[in-house]
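Issue 218. Parser rejects a valid record. Input:
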Amino acid sequence: MALDAHSFTHDALAMAWTRIWLPIPPKWLNSYLNSLRARKKVKSMGQHDLIDYYIKARTNKLSRVIKFIDMHTGNYLQIFWYGHWKPIDHDLKEFIYSCLKKKRDKFESEEFNIEFLSRLLNEFKGGKVFKRKCKEKGVPFTEVEKDWIMDTTDFTRCVFLWHIATDLVYYDDLDKHQIGAVGKFGKIGKSLSDYMMYLVLARPLMLPLGFSEAANRDTYKEAEVFFHNEMKEKWSIARKQFTSGLLAFNPEASSFYHGIKHENFSEMFNGCIFGKKLQSLVTVHRWDHEEKWEFISEVWMEMLTYAAGYCSWKQHAEQLRRGGELLTLVSLLMAHFGLSTQIRRSEKAENAESISSFLDGEPFPNF
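Output the parser choked on:
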């Protein structure tokens, strides 16, 4: 409602009739309108951390009230009260531009083959990114291929799974190695993970059709298995108890899950499995933390690209009325590079700085 009111105020003040009849000095009005336009540029991105929400809801004295309200309001408190916004920083912009530039180069190397483009934009499970990383490190992919195959084709459930895994890795690295182990790619991966979860919960119409409400309900229900009665302490202690319990849990060894196939596990428990696999890249396969987080960031970039390519321009236009989304900016940059199946493509992309004004006036990095 606030964003709609903001949009109405801007449009009303911008009308010529308003300028004539309002007893406001023209210089002041023009200055105010310019400030409104500046605010309408997409400078920030929504964030939602599932584990952070679980712990805050659990440690809150009104946790039962919170869940009761969420059950009857479509998780309103979870989405809007426990979510937050953060600036789109330079490192993230540079990373997005670099990844899309590489896709453009691949597309060009295939002589702009449309079938190749469709395959290029349809990668979101992480397996192909891992295969590419293994090739870069000279490791045979066939040795570990089965560990990174995801049977589900539900994009929403993939987001839940990878979000939980990313959260577990992020908090485990913070607990064991402090912030230094996370580094630039850790911040990028965490930001994209929380942004995609925000889209799933708050902007589901911008994403491929999925079962976001069911996945959200199921993951919270199974997260309760790891809630301890003593989790009424401060957030940091409760969070460490929760994440360490998840990483230590082995659903395959549990009597309850004995004989159940991986694809029948929930996103919560598959997220635990993937989180441990990600940590094993360092402990077993001798990757360093930066390589691990670069891999995680690229997986999230694949998901962001897939979602941007799927979302209709009608939905993008609808969100512009509410202030705009990072997803829309990514879609525009993809279209600029010819990485879109929804609009007519041009084989020659001009300098990407021509659309830099969408990102707060900062030019995209010049590669």
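Fixed in the parser; the record now loads. The CA atoms of residues 183 and 267 lie 27 Å apart.
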